[in-house]
Design brief:
By secondary structure, the protein is of the alpha/beta class. The strands form two sheets. It has a seven-stranded mixed β-sheet with strand order 7-6-5-8-9-11-10, sandwiched between helices. The protein has two domains: 130 residues, Methylene-tetrahydromethanopterin dehydrogenase, N-terminal domain (Rossmann fold), CATH 3.40.50; 159 residues, Rossmann fold (3-Layer(aba) Sandwich), CATH 3.40.50.720. Bound molecules: NADP nicotinamide-adenine-dinucleotide phosphate. NADP nicotinamide-adenine-dinucleotide phosphate binds next to helix 5, helix 6 and helix 10.
């Protein structure tokens, strides 16, 4: 009898995400076991507990999924799991804390597609303002966009928090070359005056850009909004919009809504979960792999 596909879902949070559990079953994993309140130091032990019990064939049918709420911790957990492998006893690992990596990848890829389609431009050189950018999705989107050549500013209610998140993104994932900056919402007006792209990644139900902000953003080309809970996170961007002109834009900007990003995110997470299940050799998947897939998915769309 073939061994079942077993996914161990480890998370520093007190609950595993039902969203991720559903996604993993739908991607063909036979059983998903959650481990909650996991600390970084636990990861090596859990990894070695998982790899030695199934033989080289069974090991290929075993995987780790890393959840939680924090980009840095999830990436550190992925590194610790990789370091604990003892080839040929080695399994695939996929980090997607709070769905942030796949969501951020989907959002930036959708923006890239609209920049090319509507303006004949790429992400390179865009001035991107990430409103509500200090959460897991905003930080991952900032890193992905900055690595693609954009100049990125993370905005939040407090300047020190935005600065801290920007520094962490640059240092931990941008090899100190991404140049992501932080700024407070008090300076939103100045930032939006220069922005060519806006990403709305604040908590659900929060409007980060009202009609007047949209009208004042005179260089704006694309605005993408992740908020699916009324009111709109970016005024005039509907949840189903995919390159629809934003009514109050003075610059002919187009909008991308939360459900459009959500669909690309779903396809991306599903693909990566399937890919790690089917892989002949171990894969270590995170935001860069998510962006690579989301881009190729949209190119073939
Ligand atoms: N479509 C999808 O597939 C999908 C998947 C995952 C998440 N999402 C959505 O993506 C968005 C971002 O998710 P997340 O988990 O990164 O968000 P989050 O951590 O809950 O919030 C992001 C930031 O929003 C700011 N914020 C919170 N309350 C605010 C308020 N009342 N006014 C102004 N700013 C406020 C905070 O920044 P400061 O404290 O620095 O101001 C916070 O760091 C959410 O809307 C979520 O629902 C969508």
């Amino acid at each position: 009898m073939e061994k079942p596909y077993l996914l161990h879902l480890i998370t520093p949070a007190k609950n595993a995400s039902p969203f991720d559990v559903n996604m993993a079953y739908d991607a063909g994993w036979d059983a998903i076991t959650p481990y909650t309140n996991v600390e970084l130091d636990d990861v090596a032990g859990l990894t070695q507990d998982a790899i030695f019990s199934r033989g080289p064939k069974g090991v290929r049918r075993t995987g780790f999924f890393i959840g939680g709420r924090e980009m840095v911790l999830a990436m550190d957990m992925l590194d610790n799991a990789r370091d604990a492998m003892v080839p040929p006893f080695e399994i695939s690992v996929f980090a997607d804390p709070s769905g942030a990596f796949t969501t951020a990848a989907a959002m930036v890829a959708a923006v890239e597609k609209q920049l090319a389609k509507t303006f004949g431009e790429s992400l390179d050189g865009q001035k991107i303002v990430v409103l509500g950018g200090t959460g897991p999705v905003g930080s991952a989107a900032s890193v992905i966009a900055a690595k693609a050549g954009a100049s990125v500013t993370v905005m939040g209610r407090q300047k020190d928090k935005a600065d801290r998140v920007a520094a962490l993104c640059n240092h931990a994932y941008g090899a100190d070359m991404t140049g992501i900056k932080g700024d407070a919402n008090d300076h939103k007006g100045e930032q939006l005056e220069e922005a060519t792209v806006v990403l709305g990644t604040a908590a659900a139900g929060v409007q980060v850009m009202n009609k007047d902000d949209v009208a004042a953003a005179k260089h704006l080309k694309v605005a993408a909004d992740l908020n699916a809970v009324p009111p709109e996170g970016i005024a005039g961007v509907g949840v189903m919009d995919d390159g629809v002109p934003i009514p109050d834009s003075s610059s002919g900007a187009v909008g991308i809504g939360a459900l459009v990003v959500g669909n690309i995110k779903y396809q991306t997470q599903n693909h990566l979960l399937q890919q790690m299940r089917e892989a002949d050799s171990p894969m270590y998947l995170h935001f860069e792999h998510a962006f690579e897939f989301a881009r190729s998915y949209l190119q073939n769309d």
